[in-house]
Every structure is written in structure tokens, then in C-alpha cells.
């Protein structure tokens, strides 16, 4: 009975638990039903909203089509307005021309033209006078100002004619020149001009406006700087611009601005730009200022082109050169290890690295590795600190020698570090070419005995230390070295010289073959199987 009672109690407890669980499930069912109804309402609302959005989208598309049509109509109207404006401008110009011809027709009979203007070789100034150069400059500037500003010289001068006889006094001419802000057009300069003009042009202390305008093209241009002097000044300007990171476009825009402004004082502008911003000396600035004022667009045509690379490009070039120096340290370290190497010598040495190094790239690197840039002549080629480059191509040398240029791309810096650690180094016979540092040498082609082994060995696939050499690889390297050797001497050579040349070639080839075969033998001894060889070959391909 007790067991039966216990079982009854247990059954009642289980029934109560099931009843509570059923109530919980009913509550969850009702909650899910409420949520389903809410979701259904939201779906209906979203569908309605979607329909509204689709309707608005169609309306926007219609508006957009109308807007495109309005844009086309606007462009047509702009074209019509431009055409009408051109026609109106032409009508106005014709009206002004007719009025000017009518006014000139009424004034021309009051004065004549000097007959000397028709004589071949006539010039308005008496060139025999010692002080006529200032008057020559004044007439030249007046002619250029009228041409640049598209100003009628006759109209300008007649506007200052107070007597109406077509002749001007010195004060009246000075007033006309001041209206166009002509440089150097002071009263004293105009008085000097009247004294330097030919007697046929000045009558009773007054000059004919018509004669003066017609005589402007007859006056010879003031003497320009000599061609070699101007060429040296332009070369100095290019070096200064490259040193101070002034782009060619910036300089040309400023020079064009000077030329297009008839009131430009070329001397002051030249001193401000060339001396103040580019640190050229006063003599070079005066030469350039005179050349621009006299030759104008002709000097811009003679101005050499130059390139100013971005900072990242300069750093990448520097890292690439340091990597090549590290790869060919056995040849280049001794030749570059000098604190003062002239630019020509530096370019000659680094040109042996192959055609991928252009002269412009090497010059950009030379500016970064310049010896004492604070004491360098701003308008002269840089003197390269080769020892600094050699130190920078060593382990942790780049960060120490070029602390301001350490923000380099990771890939370029990693390639430099791998080259320094010797993973990609190429071994070849050192070239016996001695270049004196800090001495300017003539630019010449790299000798074949030096350039050929370097170029050929640079093209040979580099086998890392972990790779296992094979006989085929040794034969390929030997063939590349043999192909890069200099040609055999001609039959006209002396027997002794021919024998010496053959001996030198044989010794160099033997040295290269022995060195390469030793490297392959060492690599074969240290090899770790085909799997290691394949991994090393993949790494070598990535490095290349």
C-alpha cells in the first residue's frame, strides 16, 4: 500500500509537471502567433512602401528624362548665345574700326610721314651715341607691350596729343607710356629718348606719333647674351630646379606669365625667382632675365626639359640602387667607396649595372646621396658620396645613412635586406677599371670587357644557397659567361698583345667558372632534397 501510494504521488507530480509544461507551450504558441501576425502586418506595410518607392522611382526616371532634354536644350541655347555674342562682337569691332578710320582720315591730312622711314637700314635711334642703349630698351619694351596687350600704338599716343597736330612733347609721351605701365618709362628716360632720336623724327622738340609707331619695327633689338653664356645659364637653372624640387611646368608657367604681361619688370622678377628661390648668383639671374625679355618664346624653346620625381619614387630608386650595389658588392664597393665622386664618374660606374639604369635615374639618386648638400653649389651638378651608398648597402646601413628616407615601400626595403643578407648575390670577376673620385670625366660608353660580364651574369638565374645544383645549371652559367667574354683580337694585332689578351680572357673565364662551380658544389653539399630545391627555386623566382 505504501509503494502504491508513493507511485500515485509520483504520478500526480508527473501529471502536474506535464500540465505546467503544457501551459508553457501554449503561452509560447500564442506568442509565436502574435509575432507571426505582427510580421504579416509588417510585410504588408513593406509591400505598400515598396510600391510607393517604385512609383517614386518611375517619377524620378521621368524627371530625369525631362532633365536630360532640358540639358540638351540648354546646350543649344548656350551655342546660340555664343554665336550671337560673336556676331555682336564682330559688329562692334566693325563699328569701332569705321569710327577710327573716320577719325584718322580727318587727322591724317594735318601731318605727314617722315620720308626717312622708307630708306633701307633706317633706325629711329642714332646708334653712334654712347647712351643709346637705354633708349633702345625703352623702344623695345614699348613695342613688346603694344604687341602683348594688343594695343593700338597710334591710338594710345594720339590720346595724349593736347594740340591735335599729331605730335607729342616729352611730357605727353611720358604720360602715354605711364598709361600702360611701361617699365623704365620715367620722365628722364623719355627726355633721353628724345635726345637719341634721329633729327628727322624730332621737329621743334616734338615727335610725330605716326612716325614713332611706324619706326618701332625698324629699331634693332638690344644685344642678347651670347649663346654659350645663355646655354650655361639655362643648364645652371635646370640643376637648381632639380635640387630645389621645382617642376618644369611651374617654371614655364611663371616665365610665360612674365612674357604675357606687358608691364613686367624682368630684372626684378628674375632676381626674385632665380636668386631668391633658386639661389642662383646675380650674374646668372641677370643673364636669364635679359634672355627672357629679348628672346621671349625663343628662350622657352631652348629651355631644356627636366623631371622632378615624387618622394616615393626617389626613395624607390635609391633602394633599387642599394640593392644592386649589395648584389655586386665585390665589383662596385671598391669603386664607389669615396666621399666625393663626380656625377660623370658616378654615372659611368653605375651604368655598368645594365640598361635599366638611365642617366636621369642615376642623377636623381645622386641628389639624394650628395656630399655635404648644405655646402654644395645650388646650380652645379651634385658630387656623390659613394662611401655613404656603400655603407647604406650594408646590414642596417640604410636606416643609419638615410634616416629621413626610411618611409620606404615594404617590398623594396625587404628586397634590399635580402640582397644584403646574400640570398640573391651574383658572383663575378671584379672589373679592373679605376675612376678617380671627384674628377669630371667625359661621358663615354662602358668598355665591353667590363659591361659584358656584368650584363650577362645579371641575366643568369640566381640559385639560392638552399638549392641543389645540377650539371645542366653549371653548363648554362658557363655558356652565359663564355658568351659575355670580349671578342677575340683582330689578325692585325701584335703576337704578344694577342697572347696577353687570350691569357687575360682565359684567366677571367677560369676565375668565373671556378667561382660559380665552387658555389654550386657548396650548394650541392648543403642541399636537403628535391622538396627543398623546389621551395628555394620558388623563392628565387619571387626575388627575381
Structural overview:
The chain is mainly α and 544 residues long. The chain has 22 helices and 3 strands. The chain has helices spanning 2-107, 132-149, 153-158, 170-179, 187-196, 209-215, 227-243, 248-260, 266-277, 282-295, 297-302, 311-327, 329-336, 343-350, 359-368, 386-392, 397-401, 410-420, 448-459, 471-484, 495-525, 530-543; strands at residues 167-168, 202-203, 206-208. A 3-stranded antiparallel β-sheet has the order 1-3-2. Helix 2 packs across helix 5 (187-196), helix 12 (311-327) packs across helix 13 and helix 19 runs antiparallel to helix 20. The longest helix is centred in the N-terminal third of the chain and has 106 residues, at 2-107. The radius of gyration is 43 Å and the shape is flat. 24% of the residues are buried.
Task: Furnish the topology, listing elements before pairings.
Blueprint: H1 2-107, H2 132-149, H3 153-158, E1 167-168, H4 170-179, H5 187-196, E2 202-203, E3 206-208, H6 209-215, H7 227-243, H8 248-260, H9 266-277, H10 282-295, H11 297-302, H12 311-327, H13 329-336, H14 343-350, H15 359-368, H16 386-392, H17 397-401, H18 410-420, H19 448-459, H20 471-484, H21 495-525, H22 530-543
Antiparallel strand pairs: 1-3, 2-3
Helix pairs in contact: 2-5, 4-5, 7-10, 9-10, 12-13, 12-15, 12-18, 13-16, 14-15, 19-20, 20-21
Main sheet characteristics = 3 strands, antiparallel
**Structural class of the helices, strands and pairings?**
mainly alpha
Task: Encode the helix/strand succession as letters.
Answer: HHHEHHEEHHHHHHHHHHHHHHHHH
Distance, first to last CA: 95 Å
Q: Count helical runs.
A: 22
Low confidence ranges: 424-534
Strand content: under 5%
Number of strands: 3
Helical coverage, percent range: 55-70%
Mean pLDDT across every amino acid position: 76
Neighbour order of strands in the largest sheet: 1-3-2
Overall shape: it is: flat
The radius of gyration computed from the alpha-carbon positions, rounded to a whole number of angstroms, is 43 Å
Amino acid at each position: 500500500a505504501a509503494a502504491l501510494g508513493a507511485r500515485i504521488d509520483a504520478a500526480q507530480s508527473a501529471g502536474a509537471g506535464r500540465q505546467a509544461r503544457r501551459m508553457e507551450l501554449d503561452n509560447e504558441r500564442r506568442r509565436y502567433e502574435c509575432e507571426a501576425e505582427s510580421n504579416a502586418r509588417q510585410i504588408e506595410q513593406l509591400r505598400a512602401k515598396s510600391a510607393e518607392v517604385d512609383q517614386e522611382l518611375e517619377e524620378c526616371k521621368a524627371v530625369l528624362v525631362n532633365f536630360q532634354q532640358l540639358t540638351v536644350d540648354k546646350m543649344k541655347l548656350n551655342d546660340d548665345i555664343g554665336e550671337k555674342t560673336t556676331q555682336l562682337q564682330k559688329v562692334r569691332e566693325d563699328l569701332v574700326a569705321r569710327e577710327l578710320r573716320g577719325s584718322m582720315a580727318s587727322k591724317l591730312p594735318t601731318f605727314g610721314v617722315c620720308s626717312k622711314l622708307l630708306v633701307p637700314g633706317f633706325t629711329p635711334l642714332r646708334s653712334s651715341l654712347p647712351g643709346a642703349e637705354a633708349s633702345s630698351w625703352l623702344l623695345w619694351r614699348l613695342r613688346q607691350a603694344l604687341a602683348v596687350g594688343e594695343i593700338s600704338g597710334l591710338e594710345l599716343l594720339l590720346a595724349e596729343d593736347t594740340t591735335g597736330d599729331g605730335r607729342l612733347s616729352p611730357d605727353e609721351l611720358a604720360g602715354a607710356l605711364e598709361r600702360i605701365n611701361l617699365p623704365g618709362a620715367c620722365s628722364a628716360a623719355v627726355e633721353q629718348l628724345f635726345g637719341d632720336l634721329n633729327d628727322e623724327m624730332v621737329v621743334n622738340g616734338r615727335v610725330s606719333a605716326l612716325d614713332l609707331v611706324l619706326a618701332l619695327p625698324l629699331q634693332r633689338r638690344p644685344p642678347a647674351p651670347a649663346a654659350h653664356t645663355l646655354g650655361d645659364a639655362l643648364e645652371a637653372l635646370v640643376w637648381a630646379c632639380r635640387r630645389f624640387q621645382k617642376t618644369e611646368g611651374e617654371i614655364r608657367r611663371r616665365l610665360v606669365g612674365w612674357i604675357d604681361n606687358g608691364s613686367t619688370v624682368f630684372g626684378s622678377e628674375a632676381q626674385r625667382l632665380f636668386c631668391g628661390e633658386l639661389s642662383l648668383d646675380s650674374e646668372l639671374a641677370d643673364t636669364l632675365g635679359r634672355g627672357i625679355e629679348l628672346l621671349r618664346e625663343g628662350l622657352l624653346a631652348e629651355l631644356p626639359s627636366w623631371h622632378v620625381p615624387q618622394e616615393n619614387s626617389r626613395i624607390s630608386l635609391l633602394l633599387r640602387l642599394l640593392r644592386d650595389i649589395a648584389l655586386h658588392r665585390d665589383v662596385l664597393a671598391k669603386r664607389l667607396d669615396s666621399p666625393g665622386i663626380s656625377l660623370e664618374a658616378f654615372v659611368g660606374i653605375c651604368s655598368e649595372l645594365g640598361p635599366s639604369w638611365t642617366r636621369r635615374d642615376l642623377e636623381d639618386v645622386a641628389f639624394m646621396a650628395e656630399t655635404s648638400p648644405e655646402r654644395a653649389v645650388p646650380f652645379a651638378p651634385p658630387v656623390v658620396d659613394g662611401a655613404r651608398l656603400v655603407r647604406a648597402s650594408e646590414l642596417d646601413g640604410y636606416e643609419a645613412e638615410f634616416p629621413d628616407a626610411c618611409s620606404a615601400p615594404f617590398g623594396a626595403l625587404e628586397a634590399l635586406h635580402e640582397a644584403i643578407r646574400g640570398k640573391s648575390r651574383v658572383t663575378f670577376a671584379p672589373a679592373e677599371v679605376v675612376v678617380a673620385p671627384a674628377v669630371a670625366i667625359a661621358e663615354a660608353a662602358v668598355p665591353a670587357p667590363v659591361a659584358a660580364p656584368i650584363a650577362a651574369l645579371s641575366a643568369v638565374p640566381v640559385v639560392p644557397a638552399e638549392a641543389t645544383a645540377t650539371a645542366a645549371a653549371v653548363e648554362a652559367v658557363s655558356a652565359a659567361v663564355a658568351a659575355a667574354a670580349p671578342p677575340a683580337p683582330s689578325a692585325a694585332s701584335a703576337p704578344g698583345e694577342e697572347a696577353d689578351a687570350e691569357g687575360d680572357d682565359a684567366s677571367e673565364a677560369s676565375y668565373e667558372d671556378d667561382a660559380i662551380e665552387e658555389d654550386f658544389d657548396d650548394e650541392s653539399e648543403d642541399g636537403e632534397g628535391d622538396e627543398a630545391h623546389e621551395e628555394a627555386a620558388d623563392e628565387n623566382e619571387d626575388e627575381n
